[in-house]
Design brief:
The protein has a single domain, classed as Tetracycline Repressor, domain 2 (Orthogonal Bundle), CATH 1.10.357.10. 77% of the residues lie in helices and 0% in strands. It has 9 helices and no strands. Helix 5 runs parallel beside helix 8.
Length: 209
Amino acid sequence: MTKIGKEEMAEYHLKMLDQKNTKEIIFMAAARLFAQKGYNGVSMREISETTGLSKPTIYYYFGNKEGIYSALVETGLHYQMDLFQEIFNQDIPIKEKIIEVLKLRFKQVREYPEFAKFFVLLFTSSEKLPFLEKFFKEADSRRQMFVELIREGMIKGEFGPRVNPNLFAEIILASLTHFVIKQLNCREEILSDALAEEIVEILFRGMNE
């Protein structure tokens, strides 16, 4: 087997870095455009003009507009699910796990508002995109993660015996979505660790009365 020299290895790493940066540029521009105009309102020409990249370059990485949109959804869902799972696996009370999830989500919205707008539109838009069906099923698994977490809390005695895990999971996610949308429509920064703690404290108070 031929050995790879240092110069060839360095060139390979630079190529990989360039590819990563190019994909991130396309992701950021596409997320912003899709969030503003929806899937049907965006063309490959617009993405090309916004990124400064040629259409053949974009086609090379994602194939077509559907490929970009699907990659955005899949990457975002898997990344978030992995981070949520890391929190759920920690050896801390259920209440603290939920607080940490809200803190994480609030931090993501503050740092990447365009991606947050994209995902809010994804789940609230009237656009019916058949190729997204599989992703909606994956997104529902996030709700199921919360349901299982609440059931665990009931077994451990952290919640009262009359708690409805499915309903409480819906309430948590609805509260989270409400404040994310509020932040995206507000110039003042409202998402904070203190808010995450206050939301969960109020919900848990009701759960155990």
